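JOB MANIFEST
job_type = single_chain_structure
chain_count = 1
residues = 235
[input]
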Amino acid sequence: MSKLTKNQKAVLAKYDKTQLYSLQDACALLKEINYANFDASVEITTNLGVDPRKANQMIRGVVTLPHGTGKVTRVLVLCTPDKENEAKEAGADYVGLDDYIQKIKDGWTDVDVIICTPSVMAKVGQIGRILGPRGLMPNPKTGTVTMDIANAVKDVKGGKIDFKVDKTGIIHAAIGKVSFTPEQIADNARAIVNAILKLKPQALKGTYLKGATLCTTMSPAVKLDIKGFTSGSAE
């Protein structure tokens, strides 16, 4: 068994890994137990009592984080020429169609979100096997296939993220940076958990939200007291 580093020992002395923390306390604690020398990301993990193999229990949605993600989101818009100016004026980083489809076929995927218009979906489908595994495939359900390109770009740049349950019933989502205030982290955490709660399948029997944790890129996970969420208060 490897020995604990000095930083790891200091972290473990500051919190109890078996304790359930209120959201506000957990967000404040995160800043104390983070020892990265960079602005680490903050991630929330929720454990759901669903069976993702069943179509009516596949949890997927979008949410706009009140304080954004803290990272620069690179947006590619695939559209016809008549929509290019709209995309550029809204702040898209890359705009085009055939040239970018070819670049992606050649291995380029240096973007975070791809938005397109319905009219070009047939062409985008050609690169679906490349985009799908990377979570980049545009989808009407997440608002990334739309005629309203300007608002779609602004929403993504402003902190809109999509989330999806994995095959084990867990949702992972980056909700900010350790440089955020505890209040900002808490606001973002509430936003996504409340969005997940609203998607509870009507036919589901048993517990829906089974647990949740917060962590930074280089910190252990802090367990949340989920009663605050399920009772309608997350203080």
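[summary]
Strands lie at 41-48, 60-64, 75-78, 94-96, 113-116, 160-164, 170-177, 209-216, 222-223.
The chain has a mean pLDDT of 91.
exit_status = 0
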